[in-house]
Amino acid sequence: MSNPVYCFQNHRFSVDSHELSLHQNLMTCVIVGRQRPVIVSDNHDWISAQFVSVKPGVPHRVTVPDGGAEIVYLDGVQMAAGRSAFTKLPPEWRALPDAFDAKDHAALSAFRDLLNADNSPPDPDIMKIVHELYADPFTRMSQSDLADALGLERTQALRHFKATTGQTFRRFKIWAAIVAATRSAHQGAQIGLVGIETGFADAAHLARTASSVFGVTPTAGLSGLAGIVTLPSIPPLPLSE
C-alpha cells in the first residue's frame, strides 16, 4: 500500500459586491473580478485590476465591485521577497476559478508555480502536521508537540515549519481554524458554536479573527459569501480495493 501524500490546500471564496476593511491575509491571495476590476489599497498605494495577487502579511483593503469576485487563497505558496505587496496579474489568471469548477489539480498546480518562489518538495513530516491541522482545527497541538513530531528542538521546529509553509505555526493554526469555521457557518451552522468547535474562545474571538484576516465580520461576510470551495494541490489517491 502506498504511503499517503499530504499537500497544501487551495480555497476559493465567491463573494458579492463588498467593502473589505483593512486586514492581513495569512496566505498568498489572488483576487479575480468576475466582470469588473477590483481595487486593492493600503495607506500609501492602490491598484485597480481584474486580476490581482496580494502577499500575506500586508495590511490592505479591497473593494469588490458589482458582479462580485473570486478570492482565492493558495496555502503554502511563498512569493519572492522582492515582489510588490499587491500586483496586477495577466489575463491568463481568468481561468483560475475554472480550475476549481473542473477540479483540475494540474491547472491549480501550474497557477501556484507561477507565484511560488520555492518549488522544492516540502518536508513530508511538516506536511503530515499540516494535514492534521486541516483535518481537525480543534486539535490543541502545542509547540512542544510540533517539536516532538519533528524530532527537533522547539525553536528549530518552529523555524522549519515556517520555512516549509511560509507561515508561523501559530498563524497556520489560526488559518486552518478560520477556514473551517467559515465553511461550517456557510453550510448553516450557528456562528458561536462553530467558533468553539474550531478552537476559538467564543463568538467575539471568532469575529475579531475574521475581521483581521478577511476584513469583515462573520455576519457581514456570510451575507456576501456565495460559496466556498477547497481543493488540495494534488488529486487524492484512489482508494485501494
Outline the structure in words.
It is a single chain. With 241 residues, the protein is an alpha+beta fold. The protein has a single domain (9-232), classed as Arc Repressor Mutant, subunit A, CATH 1.10.10.60. Helices cover 38% and strands 22% of the residues. It has 9 helices and 10 strands. The chain has helices at residues 96-101, 105-115, 124-135, 143-150, 154-165, 169-186, 191-197, 203-214, 218-223, and strands at 9-15, 18-23, 28-33, 38-41, 46-49, 51-54, 60-64, 69-74, 86-88, 225-232. The strands form 2 sheets. A 6-stranded antiparallel beta sheet has the order 9-6-3-8-1-10, with helices on both faces. Helix 7 (191-197) packs across helix 8. The model has no long low-confidence stretch (mean pLDDT 91). It holds the Pfam family HTH_18.
Beta-strand content bin: 15-25%
- What string, H for helix and E for strand, traces the elements in order? EEEEEEEEEHHHHHHHHHE
Domains (count): 1
Q: Give the proportion of residues in helices.
A: 25-40%
CATH fold-level name? Arc Repressor Mutant, subunit A
Low-pLDDT parts are: none
Extended strand count: 10
Main β-sheet: number of strands, strand sense, barrel status?
Answer: 6 strands, antiparallel
Structural class by sheet pairing and helices? alpha+beta
Q: What do we call the CATH homologous superfamily?
A: Homeodomain-like
CATH architectural grouping? Orthogonal Bundle
| Mean model confidence by pLDDT | 91
Please compute the radius of gyration using only Cα atoms. 18 Å
Strand order of the largest sheet: 9-6-3-8-1-10
CATH class value: Mainly Alpha
Give the overall silhouette. globular
* Straight-line distance between termini: 10 Å
InterPro entries: HTH_AraC
Organism: Roseobacter fucihabitans
Protein name: HTH araC/xylS-type domain-containing protein
